[in-house]
Design a protein that fits this description.
The chain is of the alpha+beta class and about 325 residues long. Helices cover about 30% and strands about 20% of the residues. The structure holds uridine-diphosphate-N-acetylglucosamine and phosphoenolpyruvate (PEP). InterPro entries: Enolpyruvate_Tfrase_dom (IPR001986), Enolpyruvate_Tfrase_sf (IPR036968), MurA_subfamily (IPR050068), RNA3'P_cycl/enolpyr_Trfase_a/b (IPR013792), UDP_GlcNAc_COvinyl_MurA (IPR005750).
Length: about 325
């Protein structure tokens, strides 16, 4: 496997994945940006008891999947509790795996000889849902969203209500967002699930630029995930960043400007801010946006936004982090 690409929002280490696989009997070597993992002498991984220093989503998923076909029992302690972990476990179980406890901090997996194919529908994307909720909130619009799982959005819905945005649960898989009279400042700290999701931090920063009063946003999951602040300031926001905290002083309006998306959710935040800004905003950074959203521009257009893609989705192959292929330099 190549080392992870993804958004440049911090170190993106894989030590927990590697240590877990080693505890299960794998040899792991990392060279030239490639992670080679294998079981010495062939054969299968062995079940192990693994404690994660931090509840990493990716490491929990890697180790849970590896354990489905290992010999014996694996226990993952301090596992990530994100809904996607539980959904992945349900998917693996539908293929014949024996996983218990996914969605809690202790997951037990009993290895099985093999998995079989299955038809499976994955859960709705809670971050995409949250992005549309903020789109409605920032433009003071009414939006009906379905299918959604409101239980996966508890911290996001709670924060929106605290900010003054009315949200009604209309049935088990439907949310209606109504225009807010006023937006109020708040405090946000990103945390592993069920805390406030780091992926919603940038869109909420865009929203809070237009709230009355001073908000504080503390990003505690990734160490470099506030780069959208300076781009939001180009649109007239008043944000100061110190360390991992952003101090957002609400302004009465934003004004359109050219902006650059530095990562996936930063890009979404800038598009949302552009919808609310007076005048024309030109956004660059579509390769980030298109990596995480299925044609966000078209869905916003259907909701009545004035948005136009001026550059079509590029055809050349993309690298693992979604950018265009790099120049190759060899010695
Ligand atoms: C806990 C959390 O909010 N996870 C988010 C994280 O998942 P993703 O799986 O990308 O990241 P992790 O959950 O693994 O990372 C959480 C924290 O653990 C650290 N870490 C991770 C792996 C490792 O081997 N060693 C290590 O120290 C990371 O540096 C980070 O500070 O980004 C995704 C995309 O934005 C989000 O959908 C996930 O909700
Ligand atoms: C950072 C994100 O994705 P990735 O882990 O792929 O970089 C994200 O989904 O917000």
């Amino acid at each position: 496997m190549p080392l992870p690409g993804g958004c440049a929002i911090g170190a993106r280490p894989v030590d927990l994945h590697v240590r877990g696989l080693q505890a299960m009997g794998a040899e792991v070597q990392i060279e030239h940006g490639i992670c080679n993992a294998y079981v010495p002498g062939g054969g299968r991984l062995k079940g192990a008891k693994i404690y994660l220093d931090t509840p990493s989503v990716g490491a929990t998923e890697t180790l849970m999947m590896a354990a489905t076909l290992a010999d014996g029992e694996t226990i993952i302690e301090n596992a990530a509790r994100e809904p996607e972990v539980a959904d992945l476990a349900n998917f693996c179980n539908a293929m014949g795996a024996k996983i218990h406890g996914a969605g809690t901090s202790i997951i037990t997996i009993v290895g099985v000889p093999q998995l079989h194919s299955v038809d499976y529908s994955i859960i709705p994307d809670r971050i995409e849902t949250g992005t549309f909720l903020v789109a409605g909130a920032i433009t003071r619009s009414e939006i009906l969203l379905s299918p959604v799982v409101p239980d996966h959005l508890i911290p996001v819905i709670a924060k929106l209500r605290e900010i003054g945005v009315p949200i009604i649960e209309e049935g088990p898989d439907c949310l209606r967002l109504l225009p807010a009279e006023t937006l109020k400042a708040t405090y946000i700290e990103t945390l592993p699930h069920p805390g406030f999701p780091t992926d919603m931090q940038a869109p909420f920063m865009a929203l809070l630029t237009l709230a009355e009063g001073d908000s504080i946003i503390n990003e505690s999951v990734f160490e470099n995930r506030l780069r959208h602040a300076s781009e939001l300031n180009r649109l007239g926001a008043d944000i100061r960043v110190k360390g991992n905290a952003a101090f957002v002083r609400g302004v009465p309006m934003l004004s359109g400007a050219p902006v650059l998306g530095t990562d996936l959710r930063a890009s979404a935040a800038l598009v949302l801010a552009g919808l609310a800004a007076e005048g024309l905003t030109t956004f660059q950074g579509l390769h980030h946006l298109d990596r995480g959203y299925d044609r966000l521009d078209l869905k916003l257009l259907q909701l009545g936004a004035k948005i136009k893609r001026v550059q079509e989705i590029p055809t050349p192959e993309l690298t693992s982090n979604g950018s265009n292929p790099p120049v190759t330099i060899s010695t």
